[in-house]
Design a protein that fits this description.
It is built from 21 helices and 12 strands. By secondary structure, the chain is of the alpha/beta class. It has 3 domains: 106 residues, no CATH class; 112 residues, no CATH class; 173 residues, Dna Topoisomerase Vi A Subunit, Chain: A, domain 2 (3-Layer(aba) Sandwich). Helix 7 packs antiparallel against helix 8, helix 7 runs parallel beside helix 10 and helix 16 packs across helix 21. The protein is elongated. It comes from Streptomyces brevispora.
């Protein structure tokens, strides 16, 4: 429903401005307008405390009599209304005169209702996106209730545009294979700078990417690069890396595997010169300490191992997808806590893997035999590879990092020198 404005009708504009247009009566006109905005009648007195001599003189000329003593100044609005009608200056009275002097008046209650309707419509792109992508429903609700969109935009029309562009970006994610963020922005939004740091679109989209990929909380430029990279958007090809031990298929990897030393692979290396061979099975861990211990313990005789270093980076995903395409199977282990489960689930959405000592039974066995670990904290999440695992964590209430079960992991990694399942891509 559109707000109903109080509009102007015919008045004698010259005489009206001579009568009520004096600055000394500005307070009177303002009080009358405020009453109109609230839908209140223009009757009864309005008062001005500590009135000046000029204000008193103007009121005396208006009413044709002294306004009385005391510091405050009081004028009855119905008296002014009657004066305007009888004089013919404003046959429709004071309300029409106020509109003629100050412009149309919109009732505040109706204006608020209209604004609320406009805000509801502004969130329509967000609602449609949440319906299409269930993983974004919680994020969408937080945007609605947290007030961030209003702070970034201020008005519904700008909010609708911002949310529409945010939905456009998130619908296009994740990007496979990864592309540069400016190139993606240019293709999708018509500007290479639309997703630059500090823009409202960047702020909202980055939070949506976190919800979409399960990226953990963090801050700083490196963290933001990793969040973008988790959806396949790259600020550069060198900042995204993955750790590997005893993979082969390039001269550099062969040399590192012969030495039994970990390799740090950048996304640039993996997109320009991927491995030409893939082992039948690759173990995946979450924490670098596991890979470092495996290299120290077994060196060149360790089974092939890839370390995510936390949330799967673009480099990690590029490597694992390449190995999977060429026949490798994956066994995954991570921290036994909610953050670890989220990382594992995010990886499982991208590449298939089976658990490597990473089930409810493995967790319960470790809890029984190891010293008590730190308490479990954070919000529960699911474990698609073993639906019983979240229940087991909640029952024990203890988090176990990979380092706590390092001996078990090392016992699996030392069983023979790696073999290859292919020689050409």
């Amino acid at each position: 429903m559109e707000p109903t404005p109080v509009t102007a009708v015919t008045v004698d504009d010259v005489r009206l401005r001579r009568l009520l247009g004096d600055p000394g009566l500005g307070w009177l006109v303002d009080r009358a307008r405020r009453r109109l905005e609230r839908g209140q009648p223009l009757t009864g007195p309005v008062s001005l405390s500590a009135a000046t001599a000029d204000q008193r003189a103007v009121v005396e000329r208006l009413l044709g009599r002294a306004p009385g003593g005391g510091r405050s100044l009081s004028v009855r609005l119905d008296a002014v209304d009657d004066l305007l009608r009888r004089s013919g200056i404003s046959p429709a009275g004071l309300a029409a005169a106020v509109v003629a002097l100050t412009g149309p008046v919109t009732l505040l209650d109706q204006a608020r209702a209209e604004e609320q309707r406009a805000w509801r419509e502004a969130y329509a792109p967000l609602d449609a996106l949440a319906d299409e992508v269930p993983a974004l429903q919680g994020w969408a609700e937080r945007l609605r209730s947290g007030g961030q969109v209003r702070r970034l935009t201020g008005v519904p029309t700008e909010a609708a545009d911002l949310l529409g562009r945010t939905a456009t970006v998130l619908r296009a994610l994740p990007v496979e294979p990864p592309v540069s963020l400016p190139a993606f922005s240019s293709r999708l939004l018509g500007s290479a700078h639309a997703l630059d740091e500090g823009t409202p679109l960047c702020t909202l989209t980055l939070s949506g990417v976190r919800a979409l990929t399960g990226s953990p909380d963090g801050s700083g430029a490196q963290w933001r690069r990793e969040v973008w990279a988790s959806a396949g958007l790259l600020r550069d090809e060198l900042s995204s890396t993955v750790l590997a031990l005893n993979l082969r298929g390039t001269p550099a990897l062969d040399w590192m595997a012969d030495a039994g030393e970990p390799a740090v692979l950048t996304l640039r290396q993996l997109t320009r010169c991927p491995p030409l061979s893939a082992p039948p099975t690759v173990r995946i861990c979450e924490n670098p300490a596991v890979l470092a211990a495996a290299a120290d313990t077994y060196g060149a005789h360790c089974a092939p191992l890839v370390c995510l270093q936390g949330q799967p980076s673009a480099a990690a995903l590029a490597l694992l997808r390449h190995l999977h395409t060429h026949g490798a199977r994956f066994r995954y282990h991570g921290d036994f806590d909610w953050g670890g489960l989220r990382i594992a689930a995010a990886l499982l959405r991208r590449v298939p893997w089976s658990p490597w000592r990473y089930t409810a039974a493995d967790y319960r066995a470790a809890v029984r035999t190891l010293p008590a670990g730190p308490p479990l904290a954070g919000a529960r999440c699911d474990a698609p590879w073993d639906p019983e695992l979240p229940e087991a964590l909640e029952q024990s209430g203890v988090r176990l990092e990979e380092e706590a079960v390092l001996n078990d992991l090392l016992s699996d990694l030392g069983r023979g020198r790696p073999t290859l399942s292919m020689s050409t891509p």
